[in-house]
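Good morning,

Both structures are done.
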Amino acid sequence: MIGLPITTGPFILVIGLQEGVAFAGHTVRGILLGQVALIVFCWSYAFASLRAPWHLAIFIGTVACLSTGYLVTQVKVSTWVSTPVLILTWLIAMKWWPHSGLAEEKITPPRWELPVRILVTLALLVGLSALAPHVGAKVAGALSTYPVIASVLGSFNHRRFGPTATTSTLRGLMQTLPFTIAIIFVLGLALR
């Protein structure tokens, strides 16, 4: 479930209601390109989690994500070009996904953790939505793919359960990404 467009879908709806269908269409194209940054975040965070504490790993993942997001928003390409680039990036990341080498163990999180995760996720979503009209459609789309849920789950899992849980969680997200790419691709075509 983590890889489904749970945050991106509502973001597109809010942007479409606030700024109109054309703006939402441009945002969707930015989201497609921003998925490359999401992949880079997950891959970078997973590697960093094997050697660094959660706060340093999320910093490394965020810098990699924002740098990639900036670079891909500088390129003007169509949905038909960005989608194969995105799929190729995904294939490369999956081929060279880090392995923690540790056995997984089942640990139950404390009851307070889920509400805190939800609040942190909502705060990030509201902040990104508030920025959208000020940064433009393409940048807003790329920003919307900042891995809100992945960063919250990754950092909480990393802090509490260690790198094995983190790499497994982020790999699970990556495995569902082709479905998300397909949904966003169709939205991009529909909102032209």
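Second structure follows.
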Amino acid sequence: MNRRGGSEAAEIRQAVETVRLFIEQFGESRFDPLNVVDFRPANNRAGWRRGYGSTQEWLIPPETWKSEVCQGLDPNLVARTLAERRMLKRANDGFQSVVKIEGTSKRVYIIAARIFEGSTDGTV
């Protein structure tokens, strides 16, 4: 069990690790900051970011979520896994929230900074 990385299903661990890695790799370079007046837009934008430290969030459009962040995984399983661990902020009607960005309402997956705390099984 130690070699495997824990007692939970490999798909569950992989879901958390995949999203965590995507944000670690591209959290600054491919996510435009919200509520910042003077910034240079990201090349090949993957979404937006807001907040700082423990309140930071990454907002990811559904198309990017499916094609890049969850590439090779079931996007619904990933969203459900993160939501159960409070790493994804759920909306009342599902996993995507509606947020006003640049004057337009957009559906996004909101990933919380909690994704970097503790282990992949939701324990800290």
